[in-house]
């Protein structure tokens, strides 16, 4: 069953730009203030619904000198870019379970420029995620739960987790293809399971793709066609390892006239191409394809890339030997 068609406008769709957050994993969140401000203005002009500025990591756990400000998203750093955010675009941050101090570091929504907090967790961390979501909801934030690495979780565990989340305060439940293992068929099948659990509870479903098999865009639009409404993308697919669904592909595909491609293209010319030329690396390559096909975390492929290796066949054999 498809929701809408290729020519229809889905009013429930929301596009979230995760360039600073997922892309920040490529350069340790060291974006210039000019880059961040330009991306903020570009997203507004492009009709993007949410912009995720980064993580809300605990500075007691992570050295603030080793990462740029967008790993911590302090209120003063956000306001230096957006002021009181007079635009219609909403501001998002991600908070990892066990990697943030959510009781200390989040102000009440009435005092913060942040609109939505995305709580990221592994499936065994669902109880802790529920505690975070409840607290953040009480503070007044929109909340999502992004369950990572579900490709390695059994079906029963996924359904149990979704039942728990359906009874929570989360507004959106995210299907996350952490390892880039999904194809459109498997992504759609899981999306339908998420949708059944979420819609009965009056919640929305989102999708976050990784591009290990060059399927991030295909998986995104296929889950969209099934009824998923919150769609993640990054400019030029910038993100950890193989990267994500490319914003320019997604905005060029969606038929809603509110989304505009020209500003994104100008941003790519002025900022993304120089960023690549400076040596920041991301995007599809064979080593990421291997880990995607084998349903493995991309850390080994990222190490292969960092070492400047080109012996793809040997690397593939190493992965198979460690199965």
Describe the structure.
With 323 residues, the protein is α/β, with parallel strands linked by helices. The protein folds into 2 domains: 14-277, TIM Barrel; 286-321, no CATH class. Helix content is 43%, strand content 14%. It has 13 helices and 8 strands. Strands 1-2-3-4-5-6-7-8 form an 8-stranded parallel beta barrel, surrounded by 5 helices. Strand 5, helix 6 and strand 6 form a beta-alpha-beta unit. It is globular and about 55 Å long. The relative contact order is 0.13. The mean pLDDT is 97.
Write the layout of secondary structure elements.
Elements: E1 14-17, H1 19-27, H2 33-46, E2 50-55, H3 75-82, E3 90-96, H4 102-105, E4 116-122, H5 126-139, E5 142-148, H6 155-166, E6 172-176, H7 184-200, E7 204-208, H8 216-226, E8 230-233, H9 247-253, H10 262-277, H11 286-293, H12 299-306, H13 312-321
Parallel strand pairs: 1-2, 1-8, 2-3, 3-4, 4-5, 5-6, 6-7, 7-8
Helix pairs in contact: 2-10, 6-7, 7-8, 11-12, 11-13
Task: Identify the CATH class of the largest domain.
Answer: Alpha Beta
Cα Rg: 19 Å
Helix/strand-derived category reads alpha/beta
Cα-to-Cα separation, first versus last residue: 37 Å
How many structurally independent domains? 2
| Oligomeric nature of the chains | single chain
The DSSP helix count reads 13
Kindly identify the CATH topology of the largest domain: TIM Barrel
pLDDT < 50 stretches: none
List keywords for this structure.
323 residues, alpha/beta, TIM Barrel, 8-stranded parallel β-barrel, globular
What is the compact description of this entry?
This protein has 323 residues and is an alpha/beta fold. It is 43% helix and 14% strand.
